[in-house]
Structures are given as structure tokens and as C-alpha cells.
TrEMBL record:
Biased composition (Basic and acidic residues): 16-32
Keyword annotations of the record: Cobalamin biosynthesis, Methyltransferase, S-adenosyl-L-methionine, Transferase
Biological process annotations from GO: cobalamin biosynthetic process; methylation
Domain of life: Archaea
Family per record: Belongs to the precorrin methyltransferase family.
Name of the protein in its database record: Precorrin-4 C(11)-methyltransferase
Pfam families noted in UniProt: TP_methylase
Disordered as annotated region, ranges: 1-32
Tetrapyrrole methylase domain mapped to chain residues: 40-246
Organism: Haloterrigena salina JCM 13891
Tagged with keyword S-adenosyl-L-methionine: yes
GO molecular function: precorrin-4 C11-methyltransferase activity
InterPro entries hit by this protein: 4pyrrol_Mease (IPR000878), 4pyrrol_Methylase_sf (IPR035996), 4pyrrole_Mease_sub1 (IPR014777), 4pyrrole_Mease_sub2 (IPR014776), Cbl_synth_CobM/CibF (IPR006362), Siro_Cobalamin_biosynth (IPR050161)
Length: 299
């Protein structure tokens, strides 16, 4: 914490970054994820269905006096169900200069404050900058994880994002646009790798451009693609196609936001091989638990 320019979030971010480079935060070793902690929790609301909120998140919301939430990305049913007596503030359209004093002042007045992000706050959540700005002003913060939309999408698709002999890796990514330059857009590289399931956040409006680029890069037009709109919400919609066909289908459906784009053979769940996990190979036995995990993989 420093005394200088307490209300400038960029100063706070710079100062917290400097501290992070110099020393690890003691709380890393004092607490586990899910522990009750002092401060403002940054809670993952999950993908939409209130039942996909964690127990820890639900308890924190039920005790909250002020909930600052991510607007339309958080299902209002969840707010109605769990934020009984809390004041609700939509963060959309508010900058750090407004949000930080709001949360800080409420916390310093003794209120239970919850910052509610959609999905998991660690994925395209811009949580850390808020946490740094609060910490810089002496307000402790911590994460409470949530179910990210890629996991809801894979559950809807009834598949795994990693699948033996089909997909060994998962990429959480976003397409080029205002935030990423063309050079920073790695979607084509992930698809090129062949055994990666590519989960594109923040890319519903850009499905046509993304698929056009993949075709220009000579990727197989029949590579499976699914677009899951509002995964786990009552109006969830699933559009299934391939690199060559999905853009027309998404345009026809009219979705421009709030969908996850999944590319790769794991989308269909076809063609995988049984894992080693439940066969003789796994039972050959090793006294070294870490070695067993490395070899056998999933549980
Ligand atoms: C700002 S990011 C936040 C992601 C969030 N932190 C998470 O872990 O899911 C918003 C993007 O997440 C995706 N998204 C969020 N909720 C979704 C849902 N229920 N179904 C499909 N995609 C969703 C969409 O791609 C949307 O553009």
C-alpha cells in the first residue's frame, strides 16, 4: 500500500505489479481456494444457471450488503434467488474510478461487499486490476472461483474438452479486434496443432471473420465447430457445424454476443480411444502418486 494518488487505478496496478515481482503475497501460502477470507471476494457466478454457482459463492451472496455484478452476463434469476437483501449495482458502463471508491467505502463502512463476475473471474474477467486498486487502498480481496462458460458448453455438448487421441490440450482464447492485434490472434495456430480444443470467448460477433481466416489459412472446412449461446440459461441454443458452414448458421440465428465458439474434433466426441485409466496398464501400480497422475491423466 502506498500513500500516493490513492484514486489513480493505474498507479495502484503499477505498484501492485512491482510488489508482485519483488515478493510473493503471504496469503498464497495461508489460504486455499474456497477458504473464508478477510476482504472483498471476487466471486465467479458461473455460466448462468443459478445451480452452477458454488456453495461458497452462494453463501457469500446471501450475506452480502452490496453486490457489484457483471450486468447481463449474470443471470438475474441468480441475483433474485441469492442476493436477498443486498443492494445491487451493475458494473457495466462504470469505470474503475467509480467502482473502486464504491466498493471501498461500503467495505470500510462495515458492509459485506461481493464483486460478482460471470463464469470464472480469472477468465477474461479483468478482476485483478480491480483487486489491485482495492488492495492499494488497504482493502483486502480474494478470488472465489466459478464454472467458466467453456465448461458449461462442454457439458451441454455432452463431450470432454480433452479426449484421448482426439484433443490433448485446451486453448481459452479470443479473436483479434479492439483488444488483440492480428499478430496476437492465435486461433489459427491452435487449430493448426490439430489436437487442441479451441474455446473462443468474446467472439460471437466475429464468427464469420474468424472462419474466413481459418479457411484462408487452409484449415479443413469440415473441422467441427459448435457455437453455444447462453450455455446453461433457459434460452440456451446450440448451433453445430464446421469451419465452412458455421458462420451462415450463426448469422441466421442472429447471435452477436454471449456465445462460446468451440473448434475441434472434441466437439462431436467422435473417434476417441479408451484411456489407459481403467485398464491393466493403470493397474500395473506405482507407489509414486505423482507418477501415476502424470501417466494416467484424468480421474
Ligand atoms: C467478458 S467474457 C467473461 C467470461 C467469463 N469470465 C467466463 O468464465 O465464462 C464474456 C464472454 O464469455 C462467454 N460467455 C459468458 N457466459 C456465457 C454463457 N453462459 N454461454 C456462452 N458463452 C458465455 C461469451 O463468449 C462472452 O462474450
Amino acid at each position: 500500500m502506498t500513500e500516493d494518488t490513492p484514486n489513480d487505478p493505474q498507479d495502484a496496478i503499477d505498484s501492485q505489479s512491482k510488489r508482485r515481482r519483488e515478493e510473493l503475497d503471504d496469503r498464497i501460502f495461508e489460504h486455499s481456494a474456497g477458504d473464508e477470507q478477510e476482504g472483498i471476494p471476487f466471486v465467479g457466478a458461473g455460466p448462468g444457471n443459478p445451480r452452477l454457482l458454488t456453495v461458497a459463492g452462494k453463501e457469500l451472496l446471501e450475506d452480502a450488503d452490496l453486490v457489484v455484478h457483471a450486468g447481463s452476463l449474470v443471470n438475474s434469476e441468480l441475483l433474485d434467488e441469492y442476493c436477498g437483501h443486498a443492494e445491487l449495482v451493475n458494473s457495466v458502463g462504470k469505470d474503475l474510478e467509480e467502482l473502486i471508491p464504491l466498493m471501498r467505502d461500503a467495505y470500510e463502512d462495515g458492509d459485506n461487499v461481493v464483486r460478482l463476475h460471470s463464469g470464472d473471474p480469472a477468465i477474461y474477467g479483468a478482476a485483478l486490476e480491480q483487486m489491485d486498486a482495492l488492495e492499494h487502498e488497504g482493502v483486502p480481496t480474494y478470488f472465489v472461483p466459478g464454472v467458466t462458460s467453456a465448461f458449461a458448453a462442454s457439458a451441454t455438448l455432452r463431450t470432454q474438452l480433452t479426449l484421448n487421441e482426439v484433443s490433448n490440450h485446451v486453448a481459452f482464447t479470443r479473436p483479434q479486434g479492439k483488444t488483440l492485434t492480428a499478430e496476437e490472434d492465435h486461433i489459427s495456430d491452435f487449430v493448426e496443432m490439430g489436437d487442441v480444443t479451441t474455446c473462443i470467448y468474446l467472439g460471437t460477433h466475429a464468427v464469420r471473420d474468424t472462419m474466413d481466416r481459418l479457411l484462408e489459412d487452409d484449415h479443413d472446412p469440415e473441422t467441427p465447430v459448435a457455437v453455444i449461446y447462453h450455455a446453461s440459461w433457459p434460452d440456451e441454443d446450440v448451433i453445430v457445424g464446421d469451419i465452412g458452414s458455421i458462420a451462415d448458421k450463426v448469422e441466421e440465428a442472429g447471435y452477436r454476443a454471449s456465445a462460446l465458439v468451440v473448434i475441434g474434433d472434441a466437439v462431436t466426441g467422435a473417434g476417441y480411444e479408451r484411456s489407459f485409466l481403467y485398464g491393466d496398464w493403470a493397474n500395473r501400480g506405482s507407489s509414486d502418486a505423482n507418477e501415476t497422475e502424470t501417466q494416467a491423466g484424468d480421474d
